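Would you mind writing out a protein's amino acid sequence and the numbers that encode its backbone to help me picture the idea?
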Amino acid sequence: MSLAAMQVLVRRNEAGIEAAGAALSARFQDRCARSSAIREQHGHTTSWLPNQAPDIVVFAESTAEVAEIVRICAEHRVPVIPFGTGSSLEGHVNAPGGGVSVDVSRMNKVLAVHAEDLDCVVQPGVTRSQLNAYLRDTGLFFPIDPGADASLGGMASTRASGTNAVRYGTMKDVVLGLTVVTAEGKIIHTGGRARKSSAGYDLTRLFVGSEGTLGIITELTLRLFGQPEAISGGVCPFPDVESACNAVIMTIQSGIPVARIELLDALQVKACNAYSGLGLEETPTLFLEFHGTQNGVKEQAELFEAIAADCGGGAFKWSTQAEERTKLWTARHNAYFAGIGLRPGSKAVTTDVCVPISRLAECVAATAEDIAASGLVAPLVGHVGDGNFHVMVLVDVNEPKEIAAAEAFVERLNWRAIDMEGTCTGEHGVGQGKMKYLKKEHGEALDVMRTLKMALDPQNIMNPGKIVTV
């Protein structure tokens, strides 16, 4: 299957695009861009999926402006594609039928922090690092950490998670309420600041993970957490990925409240050593972090050390020194760039799956064998504490046989995870790249998703060609 075949055809409305473009240019003037460079930047750039640029990019600065843009597009039946930082990995910001990219990066204000209630209200263009910098003196922090400095609106739209998910959950767990612009250009508010509610349908969870196909998120109310008194972190090598995964499984099943537990295979450790100067033994390795009291993190580290030894692990080297932990986790977050360095000039195909924790070792071991048999260069990393792992296949896009081998591997990986009662994506989202796996994963429930899409977006203008076909 060709890469272009992974992208659903969306019929262009040339007359509508021209009319909407004229109206938007008149209203937003220099904040309405049509240059090829800006349009291509707002198509997909972090995947091997072909870039499908929008026709127009509008830089919105308020909820009211987003609503105005959507109303103009709805009037002319023109697609609307929300854009935050463009760091998504499955073609979410592509414009297969052209249309208007609504860039919310200028909507980047922290609107309120309620420290006594551990929550805040932010605009969608605020990034996770920006929010945590703002919170630094409050004793609070926002824990969802997907690695990339993504916008919080985009993170909610893709139901992102990351390295801290095993302890703090994913975006669905920390979003209390939203302001959303619907496909009609109406402004609605879902949820609120209360920690629970039984009042009606849970529209907040409907929009979290909807990838802009049901509406555009313009404000978020988020849970915050107290900064832990003490943090310890460290690394532990293992003879193979299966042993490392078994240690993860036992750690989780033993109830040790680990905050982060990340797997890097030998190839990824080699890449991180070269890129970040770590000097680690080049063997499958777990990166861990524990949050709590001084005595608590010490006890957690010692408990894990005993489990690791039972699973054949080497010496567990851990520290409470912030500088050492920062270097370690900076290297983990730079794994993408480190991986690319293994094969300069190649294109990175990054995919993720998630399986029940009891099937983790089996799935990762089978995937490692598949990579070896395929002859691919493909480092593996994972937020393995919740059964989620990623593979980055490095492909020469000028070699058709190599592309075919990579595509076949990615397919087998996704089918394997679903067959193990898992999911084709733990945190990247569906976008364009994962659509074909949804029928097997969800069955008849996919038709319910389609019904919801058409009820809320009958003209199919909200990020069309993603998640479901209509």
